Every structure is written in C-alpha cells, then in structure tokens.
Amino acid sequence: MAKTRTQLTKVDPVWTRIVAEARDVVASEPLLGGMVHACILHHETLEDALAYRVAQKLASPEMSEQLVREIADAAYASDPTIAEAARADISAVYERDPACHRYIQPLLYFKGFQAVQAHRVSHWLWNEGRRDLAYFFQMRMSEQFSIDIHPACRIGKGLFLDHAHALVFGETAVIGDNVSILHDVTLGGTGKEDEDRHPKIGDGVLIGAGAKVLGNIRIGHCSRVAAGSVVLQDVPPATTVAGVPAKVVGEAGCSQPSVSMNQLIGARS
Hints:
InterPro entries: Hexapep (IPR001451), Hexapep_transf_CS (IPR018357), LbH_SAT (IPR045304), Ser_AcTrfase_N (IPR010493), Ser_AcTrfase_N_sf (IPR042122), Ser_O-AcTrfase (IPR005881), Serine_acetyltransferase (IPR053376), Trimer_LpxA-like_sf (IPR011004)
CATH architecture of the largest domain: Orthogonal Bundle
Radius of gyration: 19 Å
GO molecular function, one term: serine O-acetyltransferase activity
Shape: globular
Helix content: 40-55%
Structural class: alpha/beta
GO cellular component, one term: cytoplasm
Keywords: Acyltransferase, Amino-acid biosynthesis, Repeat, Transferase
Protein name: Serine acetyltransferase
Order of helices and strands: HHHHHHHHHEEEEEEEEEEEEEEEH
Distance between the termini: 47 Å
Number of domains: 2
Strand content: 15-25%
CATH topology of the largest domain: serine acetyltransferase, domain 1
C-alpha cells in the first residue's frame, strides 16, 4: 500500500500531457525533433524542463546556460510552489488564449509564459537575499522578452500575459491569482515616492491592452480595466472602468472577466 501511495503522489497530468504532445510534434515535424527532445523529452519532470528553458532564454556571454540552469534548479528544489504556479499558468494560457491549442505551446513558444517563469525564479532569488543576481535576471528578461518585472513584484498563480510585449510591473506591485493582462500594460508609480508605491491587482482581474495603472491603489477582485485606460484610484470589485482618467462605467459583465476575456464594454458573458 505504501508503494501505491508513493506512485500516486508522482502523478502529474500537466507534464504527462506535455510529453505526449511533444512526441506528436516530433512525429509530425521531424525538423523540430532536436529542440523538442532537448526542451522536453530529455527531462523527467516539468521542473527540469522549466529550468532548462529558463536557462536557454536567459544565458548570455556574461553568465553561462549551465550556471543559470543551476540557479533555476535550486529555486524549484527549494520552493515547490514555483512549479505549482507554472502548472496553473500553463492551464491559464490554454484555457484563455484561442491561439493556444496544446499545453506544449507556452513552454516552447510563448514568451509571456517564459518570462513569468523566469520572474518566479528571480523573485525567489530576491527573497533569498541574492539581490544582484535577481537584478541580473530582470535585466536579461527585459532584453529577451521586452518585459520589465521588478524581482520584488509578487505574482499569483494562473497568470496569462496575452501577446506579452512592453509590460512594466513595478517593485511593490502585487498581482493576484487568475489574472489576465494584455500587451503594453504598466503597473507603475506616480512619481519618485519610495516604499509601497505600486498597484495591487485582485484575483480574476482583466487588464486591457495599453492600460496604465498607477500608484498604490487597489483593483478589486474580478474587475475589468478597459484598453487604453489610465487608472489613478481604487477600482471596486466586479466593475468595469474605462477612460483617462478611468471611471466606473458599469459592472464587470461576468463572474470571471480574466477567464472570459470579454473586453466589450456593456457586454455580458
């Protein structure tokens, strides 16, 4: 019986699905066989594959792929919640992005997912007191992905960055669980103030393309920020805000805006 329990604890549906999809890719497109084997089929766990992918993306002449891989391996071994969040991120991309048809796609192709996983490692470094190394990861993420996330920024699980370009998340920003954010979004401050100065994004929030959320303000759970809005004050839960400056224009339109991804003001789903 003890052996059966041990076996059950090792079941990983997300990784099992990714491996099966990887075999299908190799069979249908042999030219990608080398990459797919290196990124997925040569590894025994999702944690190993994630560490390898992060190392591939962040390595540079200043720090070798092997060193970055060792850092990522240490992060996953020290904090199992990092990989748990990655599994939720993969599911979020698959469920919310109509361009994503397989679990393997975020891991191989989507820079938003890859950047979030790199950030999760840099955040671990920050919490371990290894601040300069965390800044190095931030720099490489910005160079590689055009996404600038301060290592101290706290991000929940199930984050979906759609198109993932020109994103800026400040040092004291906090992003809840199951949030969806489109491209060209800033979670920033309003000047040179110090200490707690960046937005707090609640669970289930949808932030449209080009939105700027500025200052130590709170975006309530399951709310929507319309594309192009500039948000300078708190947003109540389950509402939609739009405009410059943003104002409440109605209810959120559904119970989970970040999942429905419906950005039409006044629409319900």
